[in-house]
Structure formats: structure tokens, C-alpha cells
Design goal:
Helices cover 39% and strands 15% of the residues. The protein contains six helices and six strands, in the order E-H-E-H-H-E-H-E-H-E-E-H. The relative contact order is 0.18.
Length: 211
């Protein structure tokens, strides 16, 4: 089994990275392979709302010149996905949002590529705004029918300078608990594949409130 962790911070080894590492270290202790990809320091255009990914159904975004399609395939091939972000104005980083909008739209338009994978969001924040950003990440996981791993509190850890989150004792416990819970859920799902039928995916019903 494998976890792909997405670092949405512009800083490669900032507090978001340290938060992700707390989780992935626990996963590795449980025998689960992990990989961290750095998204936040790249130049990524936002979704153009062209809908061509849903028409082409080739698991690709048509926008060129970035690593989005490579990362989408990594997400598809992973058993679980962690999304980590810093907090910018009580929201996730702009670059990460551009990536997630495109990746999850491609997934939804291509038979739900991330459906039933185990997912978790986490955020690193200096002081305030952590919960709105955390909820924003959960919106992607919920909409995609992913299985969301939880901890013993909301997945928010506090610190300013790189590495300072490691002084947040409660935050550290939250991340470590998340890692162990995520490993357990992944193992439960893996061991149930032969005996329990996966629910069939239904075609999405769209209701417009302005007719």
C-alpha cells in the first residue's frame, strides 16, 4: 500500500512539510510506503472550466506546461492521499487550490479516480484561520467519495518559523494519531476487498435551482 502526500506550501521544508512528515512517519512505521510531492512552489494555472477533461475522458487536464497530469496519475495509483497546506488569509494556498481544482475535476469526469481512497487534509498555521482552511481541504475529499481519516482533534498544527510546529505538543499528537488511524483504515479496506462488495458508482444527478 502507498500514500501520496501533497505539500501545498511554497516552502519545501516549512511547517507544512514537518506536519506531513509527522503523519507519514507513522504510516511508514505501519509498513505503508509514502511519497511527498512538492506542489506549492510550482507555477500552476487555475482550472479554465473548459470541461474537456470530462469530454476526452483520458484522465488528463488539457492545460499544458506543468506537472498536474503527472501528479494526477500518482494520486490515482496511490491507496491514500494526504493534502497539506499553509494558511493564507484563512484559506489554503492559491497554488494548491489551482492544482486541486484541476485534479479533482479530472477525477470526477473520469469515473471517480479517487473514489474510496483514504484521504486526509491538514494545515499548518501561525495563529488563526486554520479551521476554514482545513474545511476547504475536506470539501475535495467529501465530494470525491473518499474515506476520510480522522484524528483526536481537527488536523491543524501551529507554528511560525520552519520547524516550530514540532513545539506544538498537541498538534504533534494530532498528526501522529492521524497517521496511525489512516494506516488502520487502509488495512481494513485492503483486507475487506475479497469479502465485501464495493458500492457501485451512480451517475451524478444535477439539479439547477434557477430554471
Amino acid at each position: 500500500m502507498k500514500i501520496l502526500a501533497i505539500n501545498g506550501s511554497p516552502h519545501k521544508e516549512g511547517n507544512t512539510f514537518h506536519a506531513i512528515k509527522l503523519v507519514t512517519d507513522e504510516l511508514e512505521n505501519e509498513g505503508i510506503e509514502t511519497e511527498i510531492v512538492q506542489v506549492g512552489n510550482k507555477i500552476i494555472r487555475g482550472c479554465a472550466a473548459c470541461y474537456r477533461c470530462t469530454k476526452n475522458r483520458d484522465e488528463k487536464c488539457v492545460l499544458p506546461d506543468d506537472n498536474v497530469n503527472e501528479w494526477i496519475q500518482k494520486m490515482k495509483n496511490a491507496d491514500g492521499i494526504i493534502i497539506g497546506s499553509p494558511v493564507h488569509y484563512a484559506a489554503i494556498s492559491a497554488t494548491l487550490k489551482s492544482f486541486l481544482d484541476r485534479a479533482f475535476y479530472v477525477s470526477g469526469g473520469n469515473s471517480g479516480m479517487f473514489r474510496h481512497k483514504v484521504g486526509a487534509g491538514l494545515v499548518a498555521v501561525r495563529r488563526s484561520g486554520g479551521m476554514p482552511a482545513f474545511n476547504e481541504l475536506n470539501n475535495y475529499l467529501n465530494y470525491s467519495e473518499m474515506v476520510i481519516a480522522t484524528s483526536n482533534y481537527w488536523n491543524v498544527i501551529h507554528g511560525a518559523t520552519p520547524g516550530q510546529v514540532l513545539q506544538d505538543a498537541e498538534g504533534v499528537q494530532i498528526m501522529k494519531t492521524l497517521g496511525r488511524n489512516m494506516a488502520w483504515i487502509m488495512k481494513v479496506i485492503e483486507n475487506s476487498k475479497e469479502g465485501i462488495k464495493t458500492p457501485e458508482r451512480e451517475r451524478k444527478v444535477h439539479t439547477n435551482f434557477v430554471r
